[in-house]
UniProtKB/TrEMBL annotation:
<dbReference type="InterPro" id="IPR002649">
    <property type="entry name" value="tRNA_m1G_MeTrfase_TrmD"/>
</dbReference>
<dbReference type="InterPro" id="IPR029026">
    <property type="entry name" value="tRNA_m1G_MTases_N"/>
</dbReference>
<dbReference type="GO" id="GO:0005829">
    <property type="term" value="C:cytosol"/>
</dbReference>
<feature type="domain" description="tRNA methyltransferase TRMD/TRM10-type">
    <location>
        <begin position="1"/>
        <end position="224"/>
    </location>
</feature>
<dbReference type="GO" id="GO:0002939">
    <property type="term" value="P:tRNA N1-guanine methylation"/>
</dbReference>
<keyword id="KW-0819">tRNA processing</keyword>
<keyword id="KW-0808">Transferase</keyword>
<dbReference type="InterPro" id="IPR029028">
    <property type="entry name" value="Alpha/beta_knot_MTases"/>
</dbReference>
<comment type="function">
    <text>Specifically methylates guanosine-37 in various tRNAs.</text>
</comment>
<feature type="binding site">
    <location>
        <position position="112"/>
    </location>
    <ligand>
        <name>S-adenosyl-L-methionine</name>
    </ligand>
</feature>
<dbReference type="InterPro" id="IPR023148">
    <property type="entry name" value="tRNA_m1G_MeTrfase_C_sf"/>
</dbReference>
<keyword id="KW-0963">Cytoplasm</keyword>
<dbReference type="InterPro" id="IPR016009">
    <property type="entry name" value="tRNA_MeTrfase_TRMD/TRM10"/>
</dbReference>
<keyword id="KW-0949">S-adenosyl-L-methionine</keyword>
<comment type="subunit">
    <text>Homodimer.</text>
</comment>
<protein>
    <recommendedName>
        <fullName>tRNA (guanine-N(1)-)-methyltransferase</fullName>
        <ecNumber>2.1.1.228</ecNumber>
    </recommendedName>
</protein>
<dbReference type="GO" id="GO:0052906">
    <property type="term" value="F:tRNA (guanine(37)-N1)-methyltransferase activity"/>
</dbReference>
Length: 224
């Protein structure tokens, strides 16, 4: 998988891709992430990528020309499955969407910034709009990092135990059950006996029941 991230401040999100699972995926050649500074596609010596909104109003708007030039250049080199714009009013990102995107080969993530982005970009250049939650960030960079991380970890071979991703929260519509590790007793706090019994079928049944119970208590909306 190749992910191209377009941003006015690409330095903001370089570090999440330099560590842990995502870095291992990149080192294995299973994924690659490339950052593109939108200022490099500006059409004046001030490297301007924003301007005042037609009709007035507070805040600056990202200009269409630098974005079009960047996306056009990328598309001239390869075919992209999705060109995604990170925006608060996009469809809410979830595990099902992460699963779908993990099957794609080439993605572009366009990070919004300032007050907004020229609507013509959304009308003519974007194939999908995604939000990471019902709140507003200073830009789409952190959202892009979230999406890239959630998607890359699902690529076969990225996790050392590929079944691990299948038991994550939301994969089956439920939250993950409680987990424990050694020691079996600490300060009088004991691990449930079923988990140390060695009875795999009963352990799996317990985990399923606990996952359902946790979901019912914390996210009953998922059960609908």
């Amino acid at each position: 998988m190749r992910i191209d991230i377009i941003s006015v401040v690409p330095e903001l999100i370089a570090s999440p891709f330099a560590y842990s699972i995502v870095k291992r995926a990149i080192d294995k050649g299973l994924a690659s992430v490339h950052f593109h500074n939108l200022h490099d596609y500006a059409n004046n010596r001030y490297r301007q990528v924003d301007d005042y909104a037609f009709g007035g109003g507070a805040g600056m708007v990202m200009m269409i020309e630098p974005i079009d030039k960047c996306i056009t250049e990328l598309k001239s080199q390869r075919q992209y499955d999705e060109i995604i714009f990170l925006t608060p009013d996009g469809e809410t990102f979830d595990q099902k969407m992460a699963n779908t995107l993990s099957l794609r080969e080439n993605l572009i993530l366009l990070c919004g910034h300032f007050k907004g982005i020229d609507q013509r970009v959304r009308d003519h250049l974007i194939t999908r709009e995604i939000s990471v939650g019902d709140y507003v960030l200073s830009g789409g960079e952190l959202g892009a990092a979230i999406i890239a991380d959630a998607v890359i970890r699902l690529i076969p071979g990225v996790l050392s135990d590929e079944t691990s991703a299948l038991t994550d929260s939301f994969q089956d519509g439920l939250l993950a059950p409680p987990v424990y590790t050694r020691p079996a007793e600490y300060n009088g706090w004991k691990v449930p006996e079923i988990l140390t019994s060695g009875n795999t079928p009963k352990i799996e049944a317990w985990r399923e029941a606990m996952a359902y119970e946790r979901t019912r208590e914390r996210r009953p909306d998922l059960l609908q």
